[in-house]
Design brief:
The structure holds two protein chains of two kinds. In chain A, the strands form three sheets. In chain A, strands 8-5-6-10-9 form a five-stranded mixed β-sheet. Chain A has a three-stranded antiparallel β-sheet with strand order 1-2-3, covered by helices on one side. By secondary structure, chain A is of the alpha+beta class. In chain A, 33% of the residues are buried. Chain B is of the alpha/beta class. Helix content of chain B is 21%, strand content 35%. Chain B has eight helices and 29 strands. In chain B, helix 1 runs parallel beside helix 2. The chains are: A alpha+beta, B alpha/beta. Chains A and B meet through strand 5, strand 6 and helix 2 of A and strand 5, helix 2, helix 3 and helix 5 of B.
Chain lengths: 118, 424
């Protein structure tokens, strides 16, 4: 039996069905089912070091909330650490799209930035 | 815009300042029209995108992945840079066949705008609990997924801690993840149908990532709790979607979210006498999104529910540009093609084509089908065939009919859209 893993690509709304085959050492032997280069990259990342973009909200000094995201994807296993950091922060009331709210969140190399305007 | 007591005039009135309305107004402006007025009932432009803080928007339109508020802001910025007039906190209460729009707000009271053309861009709303006929009590803790989304993302309030979600529409899937990230326990997503109505990527990244079970062919049969929801009883359903008593299972929870479909919000459209399509719930339109009342156009989720805002923007551009043509007396009606479907394809938008110009036809299928081809025919003559490995109700399909293809059709032809099996 070939050692393989089936994935649903999350890069775009097409949601391609991907099949990643591994050799006996666990290294990737073949990837199929993708319809664009980003799909192939996703399959490799998902089987080696899966990442996700986290989106959430931060509370401002006046109690209102503003939408934020990690400016780039972070390691999947850090999702809840990133959420904890986001939920601790109090942002200024003047937040604008693109403003950095947290630098290099939870030991990753991604900043948390505002995605909406106050 | 001239003011005369409470009667105003505008070349183009756009009803709704969400992604469809803004893109339509921007497109009309870019075609040279200046006398435009957007009427928006909320306190800001952007529509429902403002609360859709997750990412995945804009890959088609902008070639990059944006969150909802970022996508909306791209258009809001353009509306403002162009100086396109808009009124917020303004509720349109009537549109008549002469394109007189009646609206109200705090500052102006009730006023009318006499328009040369109108674009309907009111969006859609969620199917409410009342439409679902679930037995049991009526405690607090039951919300549509979109309402919960507004609470969490706009107000910073959590609707509950232990959640069951009924319906696997995209908003429900997105909220399953969102509630989980904020510390809630999402116990199950129940879907009546044997397949999900949401995008495959959302099942992967919103449910599978967090180990949330998707229970297909399951529904909620009873609600428990007096003041606050305490539990729901779920059941597996048979092929005719009837609950199977032996499978009843009661799940303790304090929150039930409903994600059971979206309905185009067409009260104004109906009142104006515009004919609606019974399948889409939106107006019957031609290739340029003109309704059967000349000069009234429709685009976005008010016309048919889209999966992607990118397609909403694309459609809004068609409507915006066509409205300018109409105002200038340049909109041609050279043909009257009628588009019909076979049932496997549930509907097409547009439903009619009135000019032999390149037309993208959007459609949805009734079920999950594999190894099929989409066949477009005039009588027995095949105009176009397109093979598909898989089609599903949750994913809108398109075919492009070229100007040549349309010009080759009889002016009053019926064009059929069907799905046929492909022999392997």
């Amino acid at each position: 039996m070939a050692n393989e893993r089936r994935l649903t690509c999350i890069v775009c709304p097409k949601g391609c069905d991907l099949v990643v085959e591994f050799d006996d050492t666990g290294a990737i032997k073949n990837i199929s089912g993708y319809t664009c280069p980003r799909g192939k990259d996703y399959a490799i990342a998902e089987c080696t070091a899966p990442v996700r973009t986290v989106t959430s909200t931060v509370r401002c000094e006046d109690g209102e909330v503003v939408a934020v995201k990690t400016a780039k994807p972070i390691p999947k296993e850090k999702i809840f650490e990133v959420m904890a950091a986001i939920n601790k922060v109090v942002a200024p009331n003047t937040l604008k799209i693109g403003d950095v709210v947290i630098e290099k969140v939870a030991g990753t190399d991604a900043d948390v930035v505002a995605t909406a305007n106050r | 815009m001239t003011e005369l007591n409470n009667v105003r005039r505008a070349d183009l009135v756009v009803i709704g300042g969400g992604p469809a309305g803004m893109a339509a107004a921007v497109a009309a402006y870019e075609k040279g029209l200046r006398d435009i007025l957007i009427l928006e009932r909320d306190d800001n432009l952007g529509g429902i995108l403002r609360q859709c803080i997750h990412n995945g928007f804009g890959l088609h339109r902008f070639g990059e992945e944006l969150t909802g508020p970022e996508y909306a802001y791209r258009y809001e910025k353009q509306v403002k840079e162009y100086g396109i007039p808009y009124m917020l906190n303004t509720m349109v209460i009537d549109v008549d066949e002469n394109k007189v729009v009646t609206a109200m707000n705090r500052e102006c009271g009730i006023f009318t705008v006499e328009a040369k053309a109108v674009i309907l861009a009111m969006g859609c709303r969620e199917r409410p609990k009342g439409a679902l006929n679930i037995a049991g009590t009526r405690p607090a803790g039951i919300y549509t997924a979109g309402t919960a989304q507004k609470f969490v993302n706009m107000k910073g309030l959590m609707p509950g801690r232990e959640v069951v979600i009924l319906g696997s529409g995209d908003i429900g899937l997105i909220m399953a993840r969102r509630m989980t990230l904020e510390g809630a326990k999402v116990k199950a997503v129940c879907e009546l149908m044997p397949y999900s109505g949401g995008l495959a990527r959302n099942i992967e990244q919103c449910l599978n990532d967090f180990g949330i079970p998707l229970m297909l062919s399951h529904t909620v049969v009873e609600i428990h709790g007096k003041d606050r929801l305490t539990a729901v009883t779920i059941a597996k359903v048979d092929e005719s979607r009837r609950p199977i008593p032996e499978t009843f299972e009661t799940i303790p929870c304090d929150t039930l979210l409903l994600s059971c479909g979206l309905i185009p919000e067409n009260e104004l459209t109906k009142a104006s006498g515009i004919r609606l399509d019974r399948v889409t719930g939106g107006a019957v339109v031609d290739g340029e999104r003109e309704t059967e009342i000349p000069g009234i156009f429709a685009c976005g989720n008010v016309l048919h529910v889209h999966d992607l805002v990118d397609y909403v923007s694309e459609e809004a551009v068609i409507a915006g540009e066509a409205a300018v043509k109409y105002i200038r007396g340049e909109k041609s009606h050279g043909m009257a093609l009628n588009l019909v479907t076979d049932g496997k394809i549930r509907y097409t938008v547009p439903q009619k084509i009135t000019s032999a110009e390149k037309t993208k036809v959007y459609f949805r299928v009734a079920n999950v089908y594999r190894d099929v081809k989409i066949v477009v025919k005039e009588g027995e003559r095949v105009i176009l065939e397109r093979k598909k490995q898989k089609v599903a109700p949750g994913e809108m399909e398109t075919v492009l009919l070229s100007a040549d293809m349309l010009a080759a059709c009889d002016k009053n032809a019926t064009i059929s859209f069907s799905l046929e099996e492909v022999k392997k």
